[in-house]
């Protein structure tokens, strides 16, 4: 009896399918061997047949193909508008931005402020993460105690 491999990557299993298919092993036999080595939950017989068919059609990449996923609400125009509102009032809150942009969720606004505009909260104020020398000298007078 062979040692069972518990944690296998999908691309590893697909590589084995590709290898055995190149040796002209039938899909049912490939599935039987996979179950013998990787366990019952490795891959269904139908999926093995699908991968054999794709290999026969010329597919060589065993990794997942990129998928589009859900489209992002955040775009450069929206980031520019949020940045403009922030520049108007540096003592902003996410709730204030939400009042200005009610069609955008607070979570997305927080993501824009922190990830895209690189601001962070400092003494209950949002400031740019990368401070210039001018910002640093000016911020010395704004220190919190």
Automatic annotation (TrEMBL):
Pfam families: HTH_48 (PF17906). Coiled coil: none annotated. InterPro entries: Mos1_HTH, Transposase-MT_Hybrid. Residues 13-54 form the Mos1 transposase HTH domain. PANTHER family: MARINER MOS1 TRANSPOSASE-LIKE PROTEIN. This is Mos1 transposase HTH domain-containing protein. It comes from Araneus ventricosus. The lineage of its organism: Eukaryota, Metazoa, Ecdysozoa, Arthropoda, Chelicerata.
């Amino acid at each position: 009896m062979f040692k069972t491999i518990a944690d296998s990557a999908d691309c590893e299993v697909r590589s084995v399918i590709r290898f055995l298919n190149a040796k002209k092993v039938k899909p049912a036999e490939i599935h039987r061997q996979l179950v013998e080595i990787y366990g019952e939950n490795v891959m269904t017989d139908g999926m093995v047949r699908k991968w054999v068919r794709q290999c026969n059609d010329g597919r060589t990449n065993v990794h997942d193909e990129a998928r589009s996923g859900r489209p992002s609400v955040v775009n450069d125009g929206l980031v520019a508008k949020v940045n403009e509102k922030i520049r108007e009032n540096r003592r902003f809150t996410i709730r204030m931005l939400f009042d200005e942009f009610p069609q955008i969720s607070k979570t997305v606004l927080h993501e824009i402020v922190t990830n895209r505009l690189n601001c962070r909260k400092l003494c209950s104020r949002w400031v740019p993460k990368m401070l210039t020398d001018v910002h640093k000298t000016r911020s010395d007078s704004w220190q919190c105690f």
